[in-house]
Amino acid sequence: MGFEQRRARMVDRLRDRGAIERESTAEAMRAVPRHEFVPESRREDAYADRPLPIGEGQTISAPHMVAVMIERLDLAAGDRVLEIGTGCGYHAAVTAEVVGDGNLYSVEYVPELADRARETLDRLGYDVAIRTGDGHEGWPDHAPYDAAYLTCAAEEIPQSVVEQVRAGGRVLAPVGGARQKLVLLTIQDGGGTERETFGGVRFVRMRGG
Ligand code: SAH
Questions:
Q1: What is the CATH code for 3-143?
Q2: What is the mean pLDDT of residues 105-132?
Q3: Which of 41, 61, 106, 160 is catalytic?
Q4: For labelling, which of 10, 47, 82, 117 has a CA lying 20 to 30 Å from the CA of 36?
């Protein structure tokens, strides 16, 4: 079976399980060739619903987690989004499919991963801006964002990231130590936040700080 057909089946399974509820998410995940983002030796596993190693001790998130995060953030075409933790760039590509070209700004701590993600995204024609650096600072130059998310886990969501999201906007992140919860903040007028907590997740640790 070819990659495209495997990808369509993966999306069908994620829909059946309820991980994908929106047509826009299904379309985005059908469009992004996940096998182009994983190491050559792992291509055959690219359309199984699980995380895979991407080098430098990091992992590409499982497809259902990418779908769930996009839907919890309520992303729509035209949203300006900040991502912390580009990794291999897969989640970035799916987000870019939903929000459109030029709307995603992503920060990656490990230079080798940032360079590789930039190359892959360029080659596949995605217009995503990537900065090599520490996501604890967010990316102030392009603020305010409509939404922000972390793909690495911190004990608390960095204050700078929260401050770079507009009132009414949302921030989603895995929060905690070895085991984490997905936390969704909605920014209130005046800068306060409303906090919702979802089920347990496992992401790699946020570095730096
Ligand atoms: N979304 C990614 C998942 C990457 S795993 C994908 O689809 O592949 C989490 C990533 O967060 C890793 O690449 C790791 O290097 C990065 N990371 C860890 N600490 C960070 C920090 N302080 N700032 C930015 N990125 C960080």
A1: 3.40.50.150
A2: 98
A3: 61
A4: 82
Distance 65 CA to ligand 1 centre (A): 14
Residue nearest to atom 13 of ligand 1 (CA): 87
Evaluate if residue 156 carries a pLDDT over 90.
yes
Q: What is the pTM of this model?
A: 0.97
pLDDT band at 170 (very low <50, low <70, confident <90, very high): very high
Provide the pLDDT for residue 178: 87
Report the percent of the chain where pLDDT is more than 70. 100
Q: Compute, in angstroms, the gap from residue 1 CA to the centroid of ligand 1.
A: 31
pLDDT at 19 over 90: yes
Residue 8, token pair as written in the block:
């369509």
Mutate which of 35, 112, 130, 151 for ligand 1 pocket (most atoms within 8 A of beta carbon): 151
| Of 173, 176, 126, residue with least CA distance to 148 | 173
Domain positions in the chain: 3-143
3-state class (DSSP) for residue 136:
helix
Tell me which residue of 182, 151, 165 sits closest to 83, measured CA to CA.
151
Report the nearest atom of ligand 1 relative to the CA of 107. 24
**113/110 Cα distance (integer angstroms):** 5
CA 149 remoteness from chain centre: 7
Extended strands (E) in 19-164: 52-55, 58-60, 81-84, 104-108, 128-132, 145-150
